Each structure stands twice: as structure tokens, then as C-alpha cells.
Amino acid sequence: MIELRHLRTLVALRETGSLVEAAERVHLTQSALSHQLKDLEHRVAGPLFVRKTRPVEFTRAGLRLLALADELLPSVRRAERDLARLAGTEQGRLHMAIECHSCFQWLMPTVDYFRDHWPEIEIDIPSGHHFDPLPALAREQLDLVITADPQPIEGIHYAPLFRYEGLLAVARQHPFAQKAFIEPEALAGETLITYPVEHTRLDVFTQFLTPAEVRPKEIRTAELTIMMMQLVASGRGVCALPNWALTEYLERAYVSAVKLGESGIWSTLFAAIREETRHTPWMKDFLRTARETSFAVLSGIKPAGHDEESEA
């Protein structure tokens, strides 16, 4: 018998292109995932994909099961959501703040989807607030904060969304563009372009420059990602951004990117919520939708670990 877990595993394999990343996505060890796939192949009496190909090349049987997954899993998800709504009896509010200048690429589709399916939940992204989002969350002025900088605040839970790598964007003609990676000292002679936020909230400082006691020659700020890219492309500085925020600019060969350190720097993006709303059906569904949308629209991100109680 084909089970839903089999279909979800095949979809994860298609979306990630590798057994290792598919195992992370469905929260299994690679050994357990391989065992599950072999069990499914035994049930259908044939291979589902060609081993040692990347991205994964599926057989006709594998493609047929993927078609079934595409048809069935959305219906199951809708039914799960409808059952959760029927079980809930109270109205909700979802006012959020985003400590991530590049997050709208995946957050807006998430909000649109959520608004369509949970019309009874009041959802808003207040602008122009002049307060610290996380303390405001604790005071119930906000209901969710997207952040990569979790703070130990009583009553606040941090649900991991995904992991991402920070890359340094440089002009295509910049000497760094020919390197596989750079060390912190290389930025001592550069103009670093950042968003106008505290340096303690920027990964390029907390994970790369500050531990090495290095400071850029000059720091320049810009409000928008596209403004930063224009400055970088014209040789007026370099900037560190999440890998997924750079994807379209790299694909258009507008700028180049280089790793920060030989191993790179990786961070986790979280949804901060209050413990009291953590178990509500609508909050669980929002977090699940956010994760699914992120992996559907972003490149280069990885699962951030299992957060069972936040899953629907």
C-alpha cells in the first residue's frame, strides 16, 4: 500500500534533488529515507529513480507517483486545514514585524495564501513602528516576528523556518570575484554596504568580522536590496546578503558572489511567537505554509531542524 509519507518523501526528493537534503526536509536520517524508498520500490515492483544522478532522474513509475502526490497531497492539506478550523472556536490576530529586509520575496505569497484560507484571522504588517519588535511581541503589541537574531525573552518561542548562507556580493570585475572565498582581513580595505540596522544584527559582523576584530574601511547604508546591488555593480562597495536574496542578480550576471570564509557562514531564520499562540491551529498552519512557500520560491536554503509542536 502506498502511504502519504511515501508521496511526501518523493516530493521532497524532487524538490531538493538529493537524498541527503530530502532526508533533512522530511526529518529522517539518510539511512531511514533510503530504507523507506527501497520499501516503496518493493511495493511497486520497480525502481523509482536512477541512482547517483543529480538532480534526481525519476523513472516512469516515479513520475506516476509524483503525479499522484501533486494531485492528492494538496487535497489532504486542505482537509487538514479545514478540520483544524472546524475544531477552533476563537478569532485570532496575526500582526507581524519583519527583521529581514529581503524576506518579502517569500513572505508575501505566504501571507496571501494564509489570508485566503483563514479569513477569520486578522492579519497585518504594521509599518513605521518605532519599537523593538521582540519586546513588543512579549507585550502583545505584535503576534509574530521574523528574525535571525533570537533573544532569550520569557514566554517567546522561536520556530525555525530555514537555514541560509550569507554571501558577499561584489562587482563582476572586482578581484574578489575570482576567489572561492575570502577571509575577514580582506574587507579591511573595502566599503561595506549594509541595511541601516545595528551591526550586532548583521551576520557579516557577528559571525565574520567582529570575531576577527576586523572593521571595513568604510560602511555605507542603503534601504533597499536593489539599491545595494546597483552600488555593488558600479564598484562602489561590497555587501553581504542571504544567498537566496542574491539569486536573481547572480542569474542575470549583474554581480558576482563569494563565500565568507572557507566554510561559509550559515544562519537560521526564525518565526518568534508567544507560547500562548504556539499551539493554535491557525498559527501552526501559518508556520507550515511559511516553510513550504520558502522552499518553493527560494534557492540555496536548507531545513532548519524539526519543530514538531509548530507543525500542523
Automatic annotation (TrEMBL):
Its main location: cytoplasm. Residues 2-59 form the HTH lysR-type domain. It comes from the Bacteria. Coiled coil: none annotated. It is found in: Cytoplasm. Belongs to the LysR transcriptional regulatory family. This is HTH-type transcriptional regulator MetR. It comes from Vreelandella malpeensis.
